[in-house]
Design a protein that fits this description.
With 42 residues, the chain is an all-alpha fold. 52% of the residues lie in helices and 0% in strands.
Length: 42
């Protein structure tokens, strides 16, 4: 499986969008805060 490290792989999110109807996005500030809280940094 070494080729996976050497060659770029492009994947689509077609199945995700078909299932959910849209691609969910978490705002960056919210994601960082949740991560820091989970790590007990804040």
């Amino acid at each position: 499986m070494r080729y996976l490290w050497r060659e770029p792989i492009r994947m689509t999110n077609t199945h995700l969008v078909d299932t959910l109807g849209h691609e969910p996005h978490t705002p960056l500030d919210e994601a960082i805060e949740a991560t820091l809280r989970g790590l007990r940094c804040i």
